[in-house]
Every structure is written in structure tokens, then in C-alpha cells.
Amino acid sequence: MTTASVPVGQQVTYWQEAMTRTCVPMHISPTVDGPFRAWSTTHQLGCLQITTVEADAVHAHRTRRQIAQGNRDTINISLQKGSSGLVVQDGREALMAPGDLTFYDTTRPYSLRFAEPYGLQVFALPRQALGLSEEEVRRLTAVAMRPDEGLAALVASFLVRLASDAADYLPQTGDVLARNAVDLLTTLAAERLGRGLATGDDSATTALRLRVHAFIDRHLSDPDLSPGTVAAAHHVSVRYLHYLFQEQGTTVSRWIRHRRLEACRRELARRATGGVAVAAVAQRFGFTSPAHFSRVFRAAYGMSPREWRAVAAGAPDPGQAD
Questions:
Q1: Cα–Cα dist 272/66, whole Å
Q2: pLDDT (tens digit, 9 = 90+) per residue, 267-291?
Q3: If 152 and its partner were Cys, which of 112, 117, 141, 145 is the partner (CB 3.0–4.6 Å)?
Q4: Which contiguous run of DSSP H or E holds residue 192?
Q5: Which parts of the chain sit beneath pLDDT 50?
Q6: Contact 198/210 with Cβ under 8 angstroms?
Q7: Contact by Cβ (8 Å): 68, 111
Q8: For 202-254, what is each residue's pLDDT tens digit?
Q9: What is the DSSP letter of 2?
């Protein structure tokens, strides 16, 4: 995607919409007037999305309202390519110099600031891929990892090569390389957190759990989605599937319901003024009974689906300060 062929007065709007489609919704504000130059490429390797961006100087921030309306919960690992930038999250600011790696979490507000034209590679992973707790994620965000710091240098080198050749990999190869990237990033995170590294069995279990989560997300619209169908699709027993989710402190059925509710919550916020019936949104994500959907939605979020949609339609955008 590029702003090169877009009329000058429409370039920023085009770019913000493009980033929303490929990454996550954000407010993007150029720091200078006039033409806005930007381009990006995006590739998907297994569970890993790789986006390369070059653009003029901007301030970008993600708000709580945009998080509520979005549909992606990812950990992003950014690799600074050119110039310097600043990432702000969880009360910290990290100055990103060329070659630095930085983690940030798209489920909480953050800001990216670039005073000069910049280059950036963003590696987006599902939040559960790294097997980190909420507290551990918060300890990693907005901390610059220098390219001369041992393991960070190895990981950065691998990610740079992975991004440069992403278009050339066959799907099966890309999936294997994505799992390798997850393993390296998990090891880097463990080193930074000062905890033990995962064993081979732990890594395999995490990879299977990640595939199961992705399968569930792809089949939320199927009202027959159940522990049995999920287990059969992954060639494991229902008992072992329950074990995987027990490790997360939940059950398969509860996880499916949670993901369906989250999908409905986001869709209701996104369509807050669109006139789409609540029952139609519920049915789209596998709820066959409107009354049951209303009960479980209220139990999860403390308000009815209609009340949530009204809040999403009328609430002011908290902005960067939030």
C-alpha cells in the first residue's frame, strides 16, 4: 500500500484506514503539513503477521475506544529500521534507535512517535503465542532491546531475514519459520524476565494450544462448535484438549463462549450506529438463542447487548491521555 497515487488532501485518511485494515485502528497525525509519503507491505506466515512500513514523521496513538472496536489482540514486536522513534506504554517511554527491538501490547493504549521519516518492521503475534501472563507482558512493553545485547542481536537478525524473504516462502515453510520466530521471541522474553526457558514439550504444547485457539476463532459462527469437534480437528482426545485448557485456568466450552462474546462485543461497538439487530450479531457468532445471549453477555460485561451498543455509540473518545 502506498500514498503515492492518492490526492494530497486524502493521503492521511487513506493511510489511517490502510493501517486499520492491516494492523489495528490508531489515530495518525503527521508532524508537518503538505504531502504525506508512506508505503507498507504485509505478509502472513503461519500465526505471524509481518508488516514493513516506511513513512514521513507522525504521532500515532491507540485509544481504549479503538481497542474496544478492534478485532485483533496481539503482541507486537517492532524492529526499528531507520531514524529513531519513541514507544510509550504502561507508564514507560522507550527510545528506539535503528536495530532496536521493542514489545508493545495492542490490547492497551500506546503511542508511537517519529520526529523524522522512519522505517519500521512490525511482527504481530496472538497474545497467547508467547505464553506470558498479563503481568509479564506489562514488564516487557516499551523497553528497548539493543542489537548489541547478545540474544537480542540473534533474534533481530533472524527477524530481518524473515521479513525480507517473506514473499518467497511456501505456506508450509512459512508456518515452520513462524514457529521458529515464536520460539526465539519466547526465549528472548524469558531471558528479559529472568525466568526459566520452556522445554521442548512446553514449546510443543504451546504451539498446539495456539493452533486450537486459531481454529476456534475461525469457527465461532458454527453453532455446533464443541470440545469434540475441536479435538477431532486436531487429532487429539477430548481429555487431552481439556488438559490444554486446564493449564490456562479455564475449560474449552468457557473459552469458546468467551471468544464468541468478545467477537459480539466488538461487532456491536463497530456497528453501534449501523442498525444491525442484536440477534443477528449473536447468530453470526454462534449464539442460537437471543435470550441466552443476552443473559451471558450481561453476566460477562455487566450490561445488556443493547446497553453496550448505546454506550459504544455515544461515549466520547478518551483520546491519547486515556
A1: 13
A2: 887 755 466 788 999 999 999 999 9
A3: 145
A4: helix 171-193
A5: 197-200, 273, 316-322
A6: no
A7: no
A8: 556 766 777 788 788 888 999 999 999 999 988 888 888 898 888 778 899 99
A9: B
Q: What is the DSSP string of 274-313?
A: TT--HHHHHHHTT---HHHHHHHHHHHHSS-HHHHHHHHH
How many Cα atoms are found within 13 Å in the side-chain-facing hemisphere of 227? 16
In the sheet with 38-45, reading across from the earlier edge strand, the strands are: 38-45, 48-55, 118-126, 74-82, 101-105
What SS3 class is residue 24? coil
Phi, psi of 51 (to 5 degrees): -125, 125
Closest CA to 75 of 150, 174, 182: 182
∠ CA 220-225-230, rounded to 5°:
105
Determine contact, residues 192/130, Cβ cutoff 8 Å: no
Residue length of the chain: 322
